[in-house]
Prior knowledge:
By secondary structure, the protein is mainly α. About 80% of the residues lie in helices and about 0% in strands.
Amino acid sequence: ALIASVMKCLVATCAVASKETFLDSNNAKSKQIVLCTNNVMKAFPSHKGMNRDGCLVLQRVCKHLPKSERKRLGVVASLGSVVASESIDQDVKDIADEILEEQFK
């Protein structure tokens, strides 16, 4: 329940944060958010809510990260496992798919 609450807070924070918030200090805040989100998504690979929240966070943060940084931080791997999962809802897979498509353009 605590981790689910943290993910809800991350989703809410990312929804209202400005671009400068993510890019300040050489992407330090973005990196922390991505690393935390990736850890949660890896720890709960088949949890629908965690993966939905994780995809929403990554969708918002990845808009401000260079493609090379996304890959280095493990975003591609996390989203790839979401897309490949059988237990994740289609709308969550669509978000993950959208980020991955943009990554490889």
